[in-house]
Amino acid sequence: MLRFVTGNEGKVREAREYLPEPVERVDYDYTEVQSDSLTEIAAAGARESYEAIGDPVFVDDAGLFVEGLGGFPGPYSAYVEETLGVERVWRLAEGECDEPRRASFRAVVAFCAGADVETFDGSVRGRLVAPRGEGGFGYDPIFEHTGRTLAEMSTKEKNAISHRGRALAAFGDWLAER
Q1: Which residue is catalytic, options 36, 60, 61, 140?
Q2: Cβ contacts of residue 114 below 8 Å, gap of 6+?
Q3: Residue ranges per domain, the chain?
C-alpha cells in the first residue's frame, strides 16, 4: 500500500492510474517550506510526513512556471492563484510577456521510506492564452497545450499529458524496478 499525503482526492485518483500498488490518501498537514525549488518543498514534506506517520509516504508539489516572468509564479502558484486569481495572472503575462508566452506546468513527487527521499519530476510545456474552457481547475483555462487549454480537455485527456502524471509515471517505473 502506498500512502499519498494530500487533501486532494483528484490527485489520488490520478496516482492510482500510474502506480503499480494500491494508493491510500493520508490527510496530514505537513509544513510547506518556503523555497524556489519544488524538489526541496516536496522532499521536506515527504520527510516530515514520514516522521509523523511512521510509514513510507509520498507527496507532490507543483506549479506554473511562466518563462517571460522569470518562472513566476512557480512554487508559489497556489498562493498567487488564491490572492491574485487566474485572470490577473493572465493579464500580467499578457502585458509583460512577448508571444508565444511560453510556460510549463512542473511537478515533483517525493517518496520517503526512511533516511533518504527519492524525487521524480514531470513537466508539460505550453503557452498562456486568454481564458477559455469550462473544465479543470486552477490555471487550466489559461494554459494551452497543443492548441487547446487544459480546461477544454476532458479529465482523461488532461491526465494523459499532465505534469503530475509524468512524475507519477517516473515514480511508478522506479517502484517497479525495486
Answers
A1: 61
A2: 50, 56
A3: 2-177
